[in-house]
Amino acid sequence: MEKLFTLNIVTENNIGLLNHVTIVFTRRHLNIRSITASESKIKDIYTYTIVVKTTEELIGKVAKQLEKLIGVYKVFVYEDHELIHQELALYKLPISAIKSGINIEEIVREHSARILDIETEYILIEKTGHKEDTQKLLKALQPFGVLQFIRSGRVAMAKPMKSLDEHLLEKENAYTYSNT
Amino acid sequence: MATTTQTTKEKPAQQKNKIMNGADSVIQSLITEGVETVFGYPGGAIMPIYDSLYQSGSKLRHILTRHEQGATHSAQGFAKVSGKPGVVFATSGPGATNLVTGLSNAMIDSTPMVCITGQVASHLLGFDAFQETDIVGISMPVTKWNYQVTKAEEIPEAIAKAFYIATSGRPGPVLIDITKDAQLGAVENYEYKKATKVPSYFPYPKLDMEKLREAANLINNAKKPLVLAGQGITISGAEEELKTFANRTGIPVAATLFGLTAFPSRHPLSVGMLGMHGNYAPNIKTNEADLIIAIGMRFDDRVTGDTSRYAINAKVIHIDIDASEIDKNIKADVAVISDAKKALIKLNELVQKNNFEEWLAEFRKLEDIETKAVIDLDIHPKGNEIKMAEVVHEVSEQTNGEAIAVSDVGQNQMMTARYYKFVNPKSIVTSGGLGTMGFGLPAAIGAKLGSPDRQVVVFIGDGGFQMTIQELATAWHYKIPVKIVLLNNSCLGMVRQWQQLFFDERYACTIMTNPDFIKISEGFGLEAIKVTERKDLKKAISKMLDSEGPYLLEVSVEKIDNVFPMVPSGASVSEMMLKA
Ligand SMILES: Cc1cc2nc3c(=O)[nH]c(=O)nc-3n(C[C@H](O)[C@H](O)[C@H](O)COP(=O)(O)OP(=O)(O)OC[C@H]3O[C@@H](n4cnc5c(N)ncnc54)[C@H](O)[C@@H]3O)c2cc1C
Ligand SMILES: Cc1ncc(C[n+]2csc(CCOP(=O)(O)OP(=O)(O)O)c2C)c(N)n1
To answer: Does B145 touch chain A (CB under 8 A)?
Structure first.
């Protein structure tokens, strides 16, 4: 059965590594739903957050293949219930939306969004949340004539209380660097 | 060995105080790393490196293959027999793209190889400069690691890393792409330090003793166990430990194509080769075994056939250094993620002897069936036409199984695997996972250079021979005494076999009108003879083996000849057919 999986891929900060990571998905004919690259709390260590829909068996194989790449320290695979995750969405509306008589501010408040910017020609709204939530707001704003909509990839954190340093140390300790 | 070294001028005196540039640091780094032989082909973007090579004297021997693909296969042949990484130079653009087949081949067959390519100057990257190609992008999926160097001072460290990564853990090919300005830039404080660790690279998993005890427990309680030995044994140098394991437990040992030299074929517990064109007994018995002990093998589909009907009665122990191989094709009940030698040393302390005489006798019974139905007819054929099998068999007899037997791809390869009776480790050189036609000749050249004291014989089909035939010039130029056995069946035999068996004899594009291979070989400077009748075969082989230089023996073999037994594609191993 296919499910949504979120991968946290802990990497070095190398040119081309992201390319190498995505090739592993391409080889398995997997479509990446969202991707985010970000610094981690440790200097020079990055985290890619990738969301894919596939089977548990296949994602396990992909994760092992990814961990093998030089430049990748560790790969964590999560299902949604193991995660706190968020996406950020931006909405641009024509300024006429304000004058339309319906209270935009109320919609914004209802959706726990906020107005980021108001210019002479447009108004910019921001919302953070799960995909369904940002999608819902999009629907609510559609009647005002949304000029532009953009949503970030997912960022996610696992619920268990273990630090990245501990995970990395554990991995280091499971290996040696020469065969003698 | 009657080989000559390349004539290179000694380093002129005024060069001594020359400031080292990036190209010099490449050569110096390779020498410090212990490299003695490089296979390659020059061109614009790598000229500074060739110039440094020229000026460095004769410490590094460069073999000019006649095609960059040839260089990669030579490097692989060299690596397979010597255990040392093969090193390749190529220029940018077409030189670099010509490496791709070899890189893929080395990647899938876990062969250590370091390729160094020249690249256009860094300020031209991305401008479609002359002979610019994105070789780092192209080679990403077919290298264990690749890296582009744009600054001269980065070179020694990149090369040190390359060698460490190529040779450690599960070996593989790496590629370092060096821009021309980096080659020409000054290296102020040259220092070469061998790499001993690379961040985020974890080559050697620590052995989990708990898992090993679980494995030993299964082994000690098994009634019908079978070892599947693969190339991991050879890579980790665990041939002795495997022998100890077999002797101590009495468990029969079957081998993959690459495992054939992991365990001596004449050992009383050897039960032959697994897979599509392997032996009858180990395939049939795979589905009767109650325990499979897979060591350093990756359950390739040529080995397993239909995986849903594979090892149906068995628990599976999988010992492999690469965690991503575990459960990839066949689910393991106990996974020991470790170097094979390390695991076997400890495992040997935990296992006991059981009586498997009856189980072994069942293998021997099936062996007899195969001998009568296939082997006898293959090596003592009744018809007039010479069969591939009898040629390989005769070479095996005359070399006492002690030669390095290289093969190309196709029927010639399977016949080599079946009828060359290997006795020594590191003696099989072939293209397994990729099945690269054209691999054989250049690989044999590399193997001879990697192991100059051993006899190197290569078996090639008339199809594959024509794919890298230009390497005859390399053998001749450097007087590399490889013995080439051309098994000429005037067709693309292996494909023709499939057409016969599975496509109702529709021989689409597999029958060839061939050139005169003797004239061609003689044109390249080789001694060459052709045998068309059985009565001349033995003498011709012994003449070839006694010859001094590179030598071609062409044998006209039966055209409509098939490799049997065979597990048809998609079938289960227990459905192996003895004949059509
Ligand atoms: C025409 C054709 C027909 C073929 N028919 C057959 C056939 O009938 N039978 C057959 O067997 N093959 C056949 N092959 C070859 C087949 O495709 C595979 O290449 C081969 O089976 C792989 O063998 P392997 O698993 O031992 O080696 P590899 O593919 O090299 O795998 C080696 C394994 O060992 C592991 N390893 C590496 N180093 C270590 C270490 N230090 N310690 C522990 N583990 C390690 C690796 O991680 C890997 O899993 C055929 C190929 C061709 C082209
Ligand atoms: C580069 C490449 N192209 C195509 C194939 C597909 N192929 C596998 S075996 C074979 C036939 C080989 O014929 P030949 O070299 O004459 O050897 P034979 O089987 O007759 O011994 C072909 C075409 C391949 N393995 N490699």
So the answer is: yes
Is B325's C-beta closer than 6 angstroms to any atom of ligand 1?
yes
- The structural domain count of chain B equals 3
Minimal CA separation from B342 to chain A, in Å? 9
**B317 has a pLDDT exceeding 90:** yes
Amino acid B162 reads: A
Single-letter residue type at B388 = M
The verdict on residue B374 lying in a domain is no
Task: Please confirm, yes or no, whether B411 is among the known catalytic residues.
Answer: no
pLDDT at B209 over 50: yes
Q: Residue B461: in which H helix or E strand, if any?
A: strand B456-461
Contact A70 B145 (CB under 8 A): yes
Rg of chain A (C-alpha set): 20
For position B294, which CATH number holds? Answer: 3.40.50.1220
The pLDDT of B440-464, averaged and rounded, is 98
Q: Kindly identify the ligand whose nearest atom is closest to the C-alpha of B238.
A: 1
- Choose which residue among B484, B488, B494 to substitute to test ligand 2 binding: the one with the highest number of ligand atoms within 8 A of its C-beta: B494
Residue with the smallest CA separation from ligand 1 atom 15 is B432
pLDDT at B561 over 70: yes
Q: Which amino acid is at B519?
A: K
- How far does the CA of residue A74 sit from the closest CA of chain B (Å)? 8
- What are the pLDDT digits (tens) for B421-438? 999 999 999 999 999 999
Segments forming the whole domain that contains residue B447? 380-569
**Does B543 share its domain with B410?**
yes
Q: Are residues B193 and B300 in the same domain?
A: no
pLDDT of residue B17: 60
**Rounded to a whole number, what is the distance in Å from the CA of B201 to chain A's nearest CA?**
5
Residue B8: per-residue pLDDT: 40
E strands of B150-224, at which residues?
Answer: 173-179, 204-205
Q: What's the pLDDT tens digit per position in B102-136?
A: 999 999 999 999 999 999 999 999 999 999 999 99
| Of B436, B435, B387, residue with least CA distance to B415 | B387
State whether the beta carbon of B408 lies less than 6 angstroms from ligand 1: no
Alpha-carbon dihedral B551, B556, B562, B564, rounded to 10 degrees: -50
Query: In the listed set B164, B197, B230, which residue is the last one of a domain according to the structure?
Result: B197
- Tell me which of B6, B55, B131, B500 is the catalytic residue: B131
Q: What is the mean pLDDT of chain B?
A: 96
- B437: Cβ below 6 Å to ligand 2? yes
Write down all domains in chain A, each with its CATH number in brackets: 3-78 (3.30.70.260), 86-151 (3.30.70.1150)
Token reading at A20: 């190498």
